[in-house]
Amino acid sequence: MAIFEVIKKVKADDNLVWKYPKTNFNTMSQLIVHESQEALFFSNGKALDLFGPGKYTLTTNNIPLLKTFLNIPTGFRSPFVCEVYFIDTTEKNSKWGTSSKIEFLDPKYNFPIQIGACGEMRFIIEDSRKLLIKLVGTKKTIDNETIDNFFTSCILTKVKSYMANIITENQICIFEIDKYLNEFSETLQKLLEKDFADYGIKLNKFFVTTILKPEEDKQYLEFKELFFKQTVSVAEAELRQKVNLIDEETKAKQKIITSKAEAAKRQQEGYTYQEERSFDVGEKMAANEGIGEFANVGVGLGIMSGIGTTLGDKVGNNVSGIITNIDTNQKTCPNCGTSNSSDHSFCKKCGTPLNSPQICPNCHTKLESDMAFCPKCGRRVK
Question: 94-214 belongs to which CATH class?
Fold first, then answer.
């Protein structure tokens, strides 16, 4: 005769599924289901009534599936034999890893390579009936290790085939593979979700956290050194380009700032850039020792036409003074041919009167004042 029973999970552990040790109950037994738990009645391979968190007195009203399956009479304290499983519905975290290597040809350097992978996954039991029917069987408990072992072959098959294909298709170099961990994780989770769902488990997250590389392989190490040398050289070249670009931009900005400052100064002092350039030319002309030469005077006067009024007048007056000082009406001595200033009355060399009629110094022929050559002997007299 079955006795009155309090059915509950009596110890705390990490088991996802725990089987109550007794199987003989009656319809007045008490069932206690804690938070984040479910209790499932199981008989002859059939998953029957399911209870969520709470306290229950078992009657034929709240175990309709069990009552029908076992033909329990209504309204009596009827004994029955049944298995009770407690299922933990909290999210669990479990680790996974490839026990064998993933083999492929590196698409960049074309050398054979073997890698491994490992990570973590998070899941919850979403369908207790499906889990009990497909996975539990005669087991009394199921823990994370049981789940890991059960799904290992599935995980390995999906991980190995997917990663080998994606590396080849996307030409992912082994030395750059860590950049794709997030992409691997998201895609593998989608590929594995259905396999877990078939057993009543919802795969919330699947992470590929580490790619295990053949660090003991000499060929791999040689290519690794080559790759990182190349990477460093490219990085240094890019850095130099950026620094040079920044320097050029800085110089350009400084030039703009200087130009704006000079333009503001001209505007404040009341002259233009063209006038400033003309001032500079004028100053150079004034400092030129050859300004007295007629060629320089001509150039100077041509340039002065573009200079502003104040400086132009100043330089023009200076040049005019220089030209005024040049005596263009000199007198030639009729006796010795010496040139004398226009204000001289006698030759400064021989004392011959200069205002008397002009006489050729060679043949003593009298000359008119406008004659430059003697009409008799041909000597130049001016």
Answer: alpha beta
